[in-house]
Design a protein that fits this description.
- Chain A is an alpha+beta fold.
- Chain A contains eleven helices and nine strands.
- Chain A folds into two domains: 149 residues, Clp, N-terminal domain (Double Clp-N motif, Orthogonal Bundle); 159 residues, 2-Layer Sandwich (Alpha-D-Glucose-1,6-Bisphosphate, Chain A, domain 4).
- The mean pLDDT of chain A is 89.
- Helix content of chain B is 64%, strand content 0%.
- The longest helix of chain B is centred in the middle third of the chain and has 28 residues.
- The model of chain B has no long low-confidence stretch (mean pLDDT 84).
- Classes of the chains: A alpha+beta, B mainly alpha.
- At the A-B interface, helix 4 of A face helix 1 and helix 2 of B.
Chain lengths: 328, 81
């Protein structure tokens, strides 16, 4: 991954997690404390370092709430921020980064820095308002301690995910839940619509599970969906409790269409689990007649779009699993 | 705490750095309360114009700030006023 792609990916991942954590406090602006919460969830060296310092997501959320409550108390206001502790950010795009949170991102990618989550954490550690320093103190550590842990050689990543083909993408993520909880969630057919946003609902028909493709966005807008791919047949094609599950969705009304396949590996990690989500389109028989002749050209032209779409799809799946398990 | 004590604490400027940090929490609280009230207004059938009038800002300002921030399940009238 080149530097610019890394900066975009870092910014996207942190925006999703930080906006979700901000929404628990009833706010829409992403502040530096929400970036810290997002970093606690990071799958890379930054997140592993924070967790190795004993910082859990629950403790970090409490530290942020306590900090606000105590700061408001110094102004004579006896209250918490009004959020109900539930994540409300799904599907919403109305989040903005405050100036000082934006500065963390900018600093992490400037002057030859890598622009990854580790660089964002290093920028947060020297943030000048004292907010991050105070939060780390509440969590039993200091910026200097975290910086020195960051300087230690990163632990070797677990087994690298398998290489992706042209029609698949893999993402890994940390989720702050034990392996058994993650397994219970992602292996249960009835809970699929909670994290596969392509599915509006599912039902059992004659012993088999069928799903209905989402045709309406949460804001009420109609989504363009071909009528023959509204009905999905859902199969759990592999399951090894509690570490692996593979789901396959076929379109019985479009038998020549590609199938969707979602594989999830769950491994234990300090403070939670590491999930590896692989999303793939499995080639169907393809079009017939004249369209079959032009299909190779269409495929070639569509490559860049397919690549981005796959990334968006696997990222959406991974975020949704993480979100649901943090909202439990 | 009575209101006189609260006002005295709020006006305490002996530690400006801590005081300024506290103001950022106050701003977050004000923003969160404003969002909740705007959502409640829209749910109650108020128009963007009525909300803007109550907040003392222009309809464009309130729409720009909140149209994408509010709960997407709220059924907002397309255009009012």
């Amino acid at each position: 991954m080149n530097r610019m792609s890394r900066i975009i990916a870092t910014s996207y991942d942190l925006t999703v997690a930080a906006s979700e954590e901000a929404s628990r406090f009833g706010v829409r602006d992403i502040e530096i404390e929400h970036v810290l919460l997002a970093l606690v969830l990071d799958e890379g060296h930054a997140g592993r370092t924070l967790r190795s310092a004993g910082i859990t997501l629950d403790a970090a959320r409490s530290a942020v709430a306590d900090q606000h409550r105590e700061q408001l108390a110094t102004l004579g206001i006896d209250t918490d921020l009004p959020g109900d502790g539930r994540i409300r950010a799904a599907f919403q795009n109305g989040h903005e980064w405050t100036d000082r949170a934006t500065k963390l991102l900018n600093d992490s990618g400037s002057h030859g820095r890598k622009g990854d989550t580790e660089a964002v954490l290093r920028a947060a550690l020297v943030e000048r308002s004292g907010t991050i320093e105070d939060l780390l103190k509440r969590l039993g550590t200091t910026p200097a301690d975290v910086a020195s842990r960051l300087d230690d050689a990163p632990d070797a990543p677990n087994t690298p995910p398998p290489a992706d083909g042209r029609l698949s993408r893999t993402r890994t993520a940390f989720v702050p839940a034990p392996v058994d909880d993650v397994w219970a969630f992602v292996s249960d057919v009835e809970r699929l619509p909670e994290w596969d946003m392509n599915l509006a609902r599912i039902q059992q028909e004659h012993g088999a599970w069928t799903g209905e493709t989402r045709t309406t966005a949460p804001d009420g807008k109609r989504l363009k969906v071909r009528p023959n791919v509204v009905r999905q047949q859902i199969l759990r094609t592999a399951a090894t409790e509690p570490n692996h599950v593979t789901w396959e969705m076929r379109y019985p009304d479009a038998p020549r269409a590609n199938r969707r396949r979602i594989s999830i590996d769950i491994d234990p990690a300090p403070g939670g689990s590491r999930i590896t989500v692989r999303f793939a389109w499995v080639r169907g028989a393809g079009p017939t007649g004249l369209r079959r002749l032009v299909a190779p050209v269409t495929r070639f032209l569509a490559r860049p779009i397919v690549s981005i779409t796959l990334w968006v799809q696997v990222t959406a799946l991974t975020s949704a699993i993480s979100r649901a398990l943090r909202n439990g | 705490m009575n209101s006189t004590q609260a006002a005295a604490m709020a006006a305490d400027t002996t530690d400006p750095r801590a005081g300024l940090r506290a103001v950022t929490s106050l701003r977050a609280l004000a923003d969160a309360l404003e969002l909740r009230q705007v959502e409640a207004g829209l749910r109650a059938g108020m128009t963007w114009q009525q909300i803007a009038d109550a907040l003392g800002v222009s309809r464009q300002a309130v729409h720009k700030k909140y149209s994408k921030r509010i709960d997407p399940t709220i059924n907002v009238p397309r255009r009012a006023s």
